Amino acid sequence: MIPASFEYTAPTTLKEALALIGDGGKPLAGGMSLIPMMKLRLANPEHLIDLNRIAELNYIREASGELHIGANATHYDIEISPLLMGKCPLLAETAAAIGDIQVRNRGTIGGSVAHADPSADYPAALQALEAKIVLASSSGTRTVSTADFFVDTFTTALEPEELVTEIVVPVEAGLTGTSYQKFLQPASGFAIVGIAARIRREAGKIALARLGVTGVGGNSYRAAKAEKALEGKAGSDAEIAAAAALIGDGIEAGADLHASAAFRLHLAANYGARAIRAALSRSV
Ligand SMILES: Cc1cc2nc3c(=O)[nH]c(=O)nc-3n(C[C@H](O)[C@H](O)[C@H](O)COP(=O)(O)OP(=O)(O)OC[C@H]3O[C@@H](n4cnc5c(N)ncnc54)[C@H](O)[C@@H]3O)c2cc1C
């Protein structure tokens, strides 16, 4: 289908873009989610504000012990970033698991988190990394935690006049290992279930466990009960299986033509155990 007609502006500075967003404009990043929605007339923006020419939103850099990723960084930029591969491999691994090469070339991390698809991959990694998301409007910036940013299905803490400008993740410290494991929908690559694990070992024990989950329910989340079950343990197969079985505990799992709720919960435990084992094996 052909989208309804719309105005189009391509600002080259963030300031200019924020003035237009505040005036009812809808941001366009990679267009990988927005354009199909416009073609299906599920979204009918009157004015598209194309962010692609704003160079100040396109970077991946390290500063003050944190990694800063501009909203315009594409999935492919993140997948091949030597800085991220070295200091936050979970994000590079997760980006590499998104869709296909065309989607990764155009889609951006800012667009993906703003869209908040319940099957998107980044939310699992950002939950496990305890990342921060920087939002800007004409009146200033604010920083929110991943847990506060993802509110519900396709719903975030973004206000209409705000843009996502940056994702901030900590530089991994000590004996920390990470892994992202997903059971994917083969046509699109979207996660039916995706689990990101971040495990730190100290004196032969799991000192910190963070598990981010996507695809199981209507929103990404941290599997807090499973994390608690892992901390203090050595990480035997039995301990990992017992902890992973808690990943879906208390969650209302979704059901659709791809997977029933029971199958999603089964996948969460299995892919959770895989992610924990892989993260542990890398925490050396
Ligand atoms: C065939 C196909 C397969 C895919 N497979 C996967 C997959 O396996 N895993 C996965 O996670 N995703 C997948 N995706 C989605 C893909 O990752 C998109 O890139 C992503 O969802 C949206 O990013 P975008 O840059 O294209 O944003 P756009 O489509 O341009 O925008 C998406 C939404 O975010 C808003 N927006 C964009 N940028 C900003 C910003 N900086 N601040 C505030 N709001 C903003 C837009 O207004 C719009 O509402 C797939 C998409 C396709 C088409």
Topology:
Layout: E1 7-9, H1 14-21, E2 26-28, H2 34-39, E3 47-50, E4 60-63, E5 66-70, H3 75-79, H4 82-87, H5 89-96, H6 101-106, H7 109-115, H8 122-129, E6 132-137, E7 140-145, H9 146-149, E8 150-152, E9 155-156, E10 163-170, E11 175-184, E12 191-202, E13 205-214, E14 221-222, H10 224-230, H11 237-244, H12 261-282
Parallel strand pairs: 1-3, 2-3
Antiparallel strand pairs: 4-5, 5-10, 6-7, 6-10, 8-9, 11-12, 12-13, 13-14
Helix pairs in contact: 5-8, 10-11, 11-12
Residues 26-34, 51, 71, 98-99, 103, 107-108, 110-112, 114-115, 117, 120-121, 158, 163-164, 188-190 line the site of flavin-adenine dinucleotide.
Task: Write a compact overview of the structure shown.
With 284 residues, this protein is an alpha+beta fold.
Strand order of the largest sheet: 4-5-10-6-7
The helix/strand order is EHEHEEEHHHHHHEEHEEEEEEEHHH
Listed once per kind, the bound small molecules are: flavin-adenine dinucleotide
| Class by alpha and beta content | alpha+beta
* DSSP helical segment count: 12
Mean of all residue-level pLDDT scores: 96
End-to-end span in angstroms? 52 Å
Specify the biggest β-sheet: 5 strands, antiparallel
CATH architecture heading of the largest domain: 2-Layer Sandwich
Question: How many beta-strand segments?
Answer: 14
Report the β-strand fraction as a percent range.
25-35%
Structural description of this entry:
- The protein has 284 residues and is α+β, with helices and mostly antiparallel strands.
- The protein has three domains: 7-50, Uridine Diphospho-n-acetylenolpyruvylglucosamine Reductase, domain 2 (2-Layer Sandwich), CATH 3.30.43.10; 55-170, Uridine Diphospho-n-acetylenolpyruvylglucosamine Reductase, domain 3, CATH 3.30.465; 175-282, CO dehydrogenase flavoprotein, C-terminal domain (Enolase-like, domain 1, 2-Layer Sandwich).
- Helix content is 33%, strand content 27%.
- The chain has twelve helices and 14 strands.
- The strands form four sheets. Strands 4-5-10-6-7 form a five-stranded antiparallel β-sheet.
- It is globular, with a radius of gyration of 19 Å.
- The mean pLDDT is 96.
- The protein binds flavin-adenine dinucleotide.
